[in-house]
Amino acid sequence: MAKDYSALLNDEGLAVKGVNAEEKYDGAIIRVYREEVELPDGKHAHWDVVRHLGAVCVVPIDEDGNVILVRQYRYPAGRVMLEIPAGKLESKDDDRLLRAKKELKEETGATCEEMICLGDIYTTPAYVDERITMYLAKGLTFGDTHLDDGEFLTSLRMPLEDAVRLVCDGKIEDAKTQAALLRVWVMKLEGRL
Amino acid sequence: MAKDYSALLNDEGLAVKGVNAEEKYDGAIIRVYREEVELPDGKHAHWDVVRHLGAVCVVPIDEDGNVILVRQYRYPAGRVMLEIPAGKLESKDDDRLLRAKKELKEETGATCEEMICLGDIYTTPAYVDERITMYLAKGLTFGDTHLDDGEFLTSLRMPLEDAVRLVCDGKIEDAKTQAALLRVWVMKLEGRL
Questions:
Q1: How far is B143 from chain A (nearest CA, A)?
Q2: Which residues contact A42 (CB under 8 A, 6 or more apart)?
């Protein structure tokens, strides 16, 4: 039986408590706070916290074992990146599975027969609360794309193995794309894809 | 020979140009801007951009094949997370390799004989410019830890395979930790660790 590591996720002795939150910026997709917190030793500190609704991303695999990727200019990085299809939630109670299906359709034109949840990532949990739920989509059928206003991207297919090689060679640098592609690759190597 | 995908990373037709940046918050570890940009169709839009110095993270593997992890409370997520050792740069020209060695020592007490670069991730490139360089550390020797002031964490060892299982079971949710552990696991499965 696998060892039980659940005690490692216990907060005891490490928890940090929020004391006060001062809003510094209310933007289009983020809110930024300077928060006063109480550390485990009782001392107080001030931390930057970025709050975001969260997002979803999808690894779409076609019947030939290709993955569908999108090319999109990422302004903060200053260049085009290869990523899996993804999109942010539109409200706090947005349904993540439905949002994933919608983003897949909008960005690649694909609908899927099966959407398997691969769990979540926190993109950079030291100062951002964004949680992205990852999915694997199988049984793809392709139709038209419907990009959001102001969204510019193109989609393409390549063998999953080639995409994993681009991750390992440093050509795919987006964190969610690396994590999700490697997860699916490990599933394939273990015969579970 | 592997197919050449380099043309996919060409910006042509997708580039977004910065027109104006209005600083909204100058925090302890981030600066936040509302930026006016010119889209590929010539239209203008306003985007939130968070700027951060960047960071490093390390997958430390001991001679028995264990990985060293740290437990740390992540305030934006509201709970303790299991992560690989990591730390942010302290200046724009901070040396990433030296910073990685320093963080490894501070958080786990380990020094290493070999530090292998695994490339970079952008944590969430739609609105944050943070780039984290990932390393694999081998040939570990353990001494004292030296945590930063206000830093509370504990370190532990477990077999790499168990850590990968925790990733796949959704118990390790930090993006850099997922990406780096899965990378090292694929290296191991391919006989390159």
A1: 22
A2: none
Q: How far is A140 from chain B (nearest CA, A)?
A: 23
Residues of B in Cβ contact (< 8 Å) with A13: 152
Nearest alpha carbon to residue A89 among A38, A60, A53? A53
Choose the closest CB to B125 out of A51, A77, A132. A77
The pLDDT tens digits of the residues spanning B87-146 come to: 999 999 999 999 999 999 999 999 999 999 999 999 999 999 999 999 999 999 999 888
Q: Where are the domains of chain B?
A: 6-52, 55-189
CA distance A193 to A180: 13
Q: Is B82 left (phi over 0), alpha (psi -120 to 50) or beta?
A: beta
CA distance B191 to B193: 6
Question: End-to-end CA distance of chain B, in Å?
Answer: 24
Cβ-Cβ contacts under 8 Å for A4 (sequence gap 6 or more)? none
Q: What is the pTM of this model?
A: 0.97
CATH code of the domain occupying B55-189 = 3.90.79.10
Residue A71 tokens read as 């090319």
- DSSP tag of B174: B
